[in-house]
Amino acid sequence: MSEFSPKSDFLRVLTERGYIHQCSDMAAVDDKARAGELIAYIGFDCTAPSLHVGSMLQIMMLRWLQKTGAGKPLPLMGGGTTRVGDPSGKDESRKLLSIADIDANKESIKRIFSSFLAFGEGKTDAAMPDNAEWLTALNYIEFLREVGRHFSVNRMLAMDSVKMRLERDQELSFIEFNYMCLQAYDFVELNRRYNCNLQMGGSDQWGNIVTGIDLGRRMGTPQLYALTSPLLTTSSGAKMGKTAAGAVWLNADMLSPWDYWQYWRNTEDADVGRFLKLFTELPLDEIRRLEALQGAEINEAKKILANEATAMAHGRAVAEQSAETARKTFEEGAVSADLPTVEVPRAEFAAGLGVLTAFVRAGLVASTGEARRQVKGGGLRVNDKPVTDEKATLGAGDLAGGEAVKLSLGRKRHILLKPV
RNA sequence: GGGGGAGUGUCCCGAGCGGCAAAGGGGGCGGACUGUAAAUCCGCUGGCUAUGCCUUCGUAGGUUCGAGUCCUACCUCCCCCA
Description:
alpha/beta, 5-stranded mixed β-sheet, 19 helices, 13% strand, RNA-binding
């Protein structure tokens, strides 16, 4: 398979840029792509109000599918399957979410896709189905007779996601055990409704996808295909998408574009080339030039990565503003008015706000106790001057360069505190 | 149904003779070094109106000057026998 050289733009791009982990039939998928007849779906869980960067790889695959004219992308909302819970890749079962929460999450997630895909009725326009549409209407007995009879429990027990739980003596509830059946059925249903013929996903989804292909064969669909992407970790082994502040969300109301830009800006040297290929659409020869930069010069590549990734998710203007704010803050050491701002009542400020409290208000530390410890460690600064006296107060005299005080935790996290 | 074992600092794992804000590690945060990188080294990693006060060891009671540690009941999980 590694020897295969694709003729379609779609598979060529995916191969060159490192999106492909496994494919059930490269040659067949290649043909369909060339004919513009790939109708591909990727399922997205509705377990949180936003997707995070961990899903970016999947989103990019749909985007390339559309961009190369290979066919129609179908981001599938897991409004139904999230009610059951996917055990793949998880050590233990998760609490079931309430249906109201799932629906709220779904609405929030839907908004993300309009930044990445063009929706409509045309041949390569995206559509966004929700498996709650058919899964919640299923009748148990009917489902068992028509779909359930095609599943072999023997085979299901041998699947990695199940085997792992059994071998470690970890609980696997019946509801979770059913998850793969529902996902397999989704594939068949999407074929019936949209002529969907390809399911993509992370490598942990391989088992679920193949189960769907198999079910399709038994239930009389045309041949279906599977294509998975590698599980991404940073060079130092961490999972993608976690930072001090938590997950790197794609929704701007969950994580500000500024923080999103910063996430990409702080990429490890060793990951720059790989990430440029996966998370931007820059030409490969440009990327080769950027990743070859040595020493401190590679920071230029990181800025471009941050700009491109942020532009895609939040728009070019916002990305450029973040870049400019970063330049002022980190390269000039100036106070940029565009840094994230937290407001405090002017009266409170005039009365003299304790430094510790101020940092808690700014959200840079969780408690005054933590603020106190950070002072001891030299981690807090007011207008770039280290805080040495934990009893100090902020007043009008600290309003540097205008209307706000710049509070910093460490060298990277800055907040403007603004009296109103 | 009978017998045995376990639940610890709300990120995780984990030690804990009746004096414990509780060992150690991972993770995280901060500092030094750098390039807003990695690696390395150092510090910190319950809360507060703070030389003291409050809340923490599955839940609820009890014994004791004093309980994570002892007793009782209950909950949850695991193992063995039926």
